[in-house]
C-alpha cells in the first residue's frame, strides 16, 4: 500500500474495544431459570423481594436471654437462668422471655421478644431440664440483625453483571426463580493458514497444530457465547471468501491468522479490498496486527495467528467488548525488571512468587507455554522501564 489508508491504524486497546463493541448488534434478552443462568449476563437489576434475615436471629446454638441478667457470670460464680422454651429455625418461640429466663435457641432461629443476647452452648452447664448455668456473660453480638444481608426492596444486583455461582445464590436468596439475561452472541470461529492442521492428524514438516481454534473456542464459551465452528481455511483468496460468506448468520466472525504484513495474509487483503476496515493494528505487544472490519454487514475481528497473540488480544479486546466488563488490573510488586517498548503497551507474561510478580523466562508470542505457565499479564506502559521493586498493574489470567 502506498497511499495513506482510509481507516485508523495503531489504535489503543481501549479504542479497539470500543470499536468492536460499537459493531456488535443488540443481542436481545432471554428469561431463564437460575439453574440455566450460570455465566450469563444479567439484563435487569434485581431487587430483594424479602429481607434477609427476615427477623433478628441467632448466629449459633445456645440460649437466648437478657444480657443484663448475665453480666456478673464467671466460671467461679455462674449465673442460673430458667429455661422457658425453645426457638428453632422455622419454629420461633411463641411467648416473651422475662427477667431471669431464657430459651434454648439454634442457629438461624428468631430471637424471642424480651431477649437481646446469646450464650453459646459451649459456655453453658445444664442443671436439670429447666435450668442452665452461664459461666460467662451472654453476648449481644452473636445475633444476625434483621436485614443484615438485604432488606425487601433493596436493589442488590445491578444490570450487566455476569452471573457467577455466588450471584446466582444471591438471586435465589432475593426471592427470584428466573432472571432476564442477555441472549448469547453467536460467534463464528475460523482458523486460517496452509500450515495449520487439526490436532489428532499426522503432522508433516513445517505444519503446526491448530491450537488457536481450541483456545479461542474455550474463551468464547467462557464468555457465554454460542460458537459456530467454521473449521479451518487455507491461505487462498477463494477459500477465505467462501468462509466469510458462510459466517453470514453470526453476530461476529473471529478469525486467526492472515492479517499481518506477509504476502499470504489474504484475510487482510480481502477485508481491505472487498470489505470495510474499522481499524488495523493495535498498539500492543503481543497482538499488534489485529484487524477489525466488516464483510457485508458482518463484523469480522481478525486475530493474529501467533498463538499467544490471538489469546491475549481476545482477553484484552474481544472479551471486554462481548461481556461489557472492563479489564480489572490489580497492583503488585515487580520481582524482576519489565522492559517496555516505544509506542506499544507490552502485556508480559508473569508468574506470582509470594506478593511479587516475576517475568516468565520466555516472552515470544509463539511460545504458548508462556501463557499456560503464567498467572498474570503484566501491563508495561508504552516506553516504560519498570525496575524490580516497583509497583506494576497486572491482569489475572
Ligand atoms: P499469521 O498471523 O498467519 O502470519 O501466523 C503467525 C504464526 O502463527 C505462524 O507461525 C503460524 O503458523 C501460527 N499460527 C497461525 N494460525 C495458527 C493456529 N490456528 N494455531 C496455531 N498456530 C497458528
Ligand atoms: Mg498465516
UniProtKB/TrEMBL annotation:
Metabolic or biological pathway = Cofactor biosynthesis; molybdopterin biosynthesis
Which top-rank group of organisms is this from?
Bacteria
The record's Gene Ontology biological-process terms are:
Mo-molybdopterin cofactor biosynthetic process
Q: Where are the transmembrane segments?
A: none
* One GO CC term on file: cytosol
Q: Does the keyword Secreted apply?
A: no
Q: Which UniProt keywords apply?
A: Magnesium, Metal-binding, Molybdenum, Molybdenum cofactor biosynthesis, Transferase
Query: Which GO terms label this protein's molecular function in UniProt?
Result: metal ion binding; molybdopterin molybdotransferase activity
- Reactions the enzyme catalyzes: adenylyl-molybdopterin + molybdate = Mo-molybdopterin + AMP + H(+)
InterPro entries reported for this sequence:
MoaB/Mog-like_dom_sf (IPR036425), MoaB/Mog_dom (IPR001453), MoeA-like (IPR038987), MoeA_C_domain_IV (IPR005111), MoeA_C_domain_IV_sf (IPR036688), MoeA_linker/N (IPR005110), MoeA_linker/N_sf (IPR036135)
Obligatory cofactor(s): Mg(2+)
> What's one Pfam family here?
MoeA_C
Enzyme Commission numbers on file: 2.10.1.1
Where does the MoaB/Mog domain start and stop, copy by copy?
188-324
Q: Does the keyword Transferase apply?
A: yes
Q: Which PANTHER family match?
A: GEPHYRIN, MOLYBDOPTERIN BIOSYNTHESIS PROTEIN
Question: What biological function has been recorded for the protein in this entry?
Answer: Catalyzes the insertion of molybdate into adenylated molybdopterin with the concomitant release of AMP.
Query: Which family would the database say this protein is a member of?
Result: Belongs to the MoeA family.
What is this protein called in UniProt?
Answer: Molybdopterin molybdenumtransferase
Q: Which organism is it from?
A: Deinococcus ficus
Amino acid at each position: 500500500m502506498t497511499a495513506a489508508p482510509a481507516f485508523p491504524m495503531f489504535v489503543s486497546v481501549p479504542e479497539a474495544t470500543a470499536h468492536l463493541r460499537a459493531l456488535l448488534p443488540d443481542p436481545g434478552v432471554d428469561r431463564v431459570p437460575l439453574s440455566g443462568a450460570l455465566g450469563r449476563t444479567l439484563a435487569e437489576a434485581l431487587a430483594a423481594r424479602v429481607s434477609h434475615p427476615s427477623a433478628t436471629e441467632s448466629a449459633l446454638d445456645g440460649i437466648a436471654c437478657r444480657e443484663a441478667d448475665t453480666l456478673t457470670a464467671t466460671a467461679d460464680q455462674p449465673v442460673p437462668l430458667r429455661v422457658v422454651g425453645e426457638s428453632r429455625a422455622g419454629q420461633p418461640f411463641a411467648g416473651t422471655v422475662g427477667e431471669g429466663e431464657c430459651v434454648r435457641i439454634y442457629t438461624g432461629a428468631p430471637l424471642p421478644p424480651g431477649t437481646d443476647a446469646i450464650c453459646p452452648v459451649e459456655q453453658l452447664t445444664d442443671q436439670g431440664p429447666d435450668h442452665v448455668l452461664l459461666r460467662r456473660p451472654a453476648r449481644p453480638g452473636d445475633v444476625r440483625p434483621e436485614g443484615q444481608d438485604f432488606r425487601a426492596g433493596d436493589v442488590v444486583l445491578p444490570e450487566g453483571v455476569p452471573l457467577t455461582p455466588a450471584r446466582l445464590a444471591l438471586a435465589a436468596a432475593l426471592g427470584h426463580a428466573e432472571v432476564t439475561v442477555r441472549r448469547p452472541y453467536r460467534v463464528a470461529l475460523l482458523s486460517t493458514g496452509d500450515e495449520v492442521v487439526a490436532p489428532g492428524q499426522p503432522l508433516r514438516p513445517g505444519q503446526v497444530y491448530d491450537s488457536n481454534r481450541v483456545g479461542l473456542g474455550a474463551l468464547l464459551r467462557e464468555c457465554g457465547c454460542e460458537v459456530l465452528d467454521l473449521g479451518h481455511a487455507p491461505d487462498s483468496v477463494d477459500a477465505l471468501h467462501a468462509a466469510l460468506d458462510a459466517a453470514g448468520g453470526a453476530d461476529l466472525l473471529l478469525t486467526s491468522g492472515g492479517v499481518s504484513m506477509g504476502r499470504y495474509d489474504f484475510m487482510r487483503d480481502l477485508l481491505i479490498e472487498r470489505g470495510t476496515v474499522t481499524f488495523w493494528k493495535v498498539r500492543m505487544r503481543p497482538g499488534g496486527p489485529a484487524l477489525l472490519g466488516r464483510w457485508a454487514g458482518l463484523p469480522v475481528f481478525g486475530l493474529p495467528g501467533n498463538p499467544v497473540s490471538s489469546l491475549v488480544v481476545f482477553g484484552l479486546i474481544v472479551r471486554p467488548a462481548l461481556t461489557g466488563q472492563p479489564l480489572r488490573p490489580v497492583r503488585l510488586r515487580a520481582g524482576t525488571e519489565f522492559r517496555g517498548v516505544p509506542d506499544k503497551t507490552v502485556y508480559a507474561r508473569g508468574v506470582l512468587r509470594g506478593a511479587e510478580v516475576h517475568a516468565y523466562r520466555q516472552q515470544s508470542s509463539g511460545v504458548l507455554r508462556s501463557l499456560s505457565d503464567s498467572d498474570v499479564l503484566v501491563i508495561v506502559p508504552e516506553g516504560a522501564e519498570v525496575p524490580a521493586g516497583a509497583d506494576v498493574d497486572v491482569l489475572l489470567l
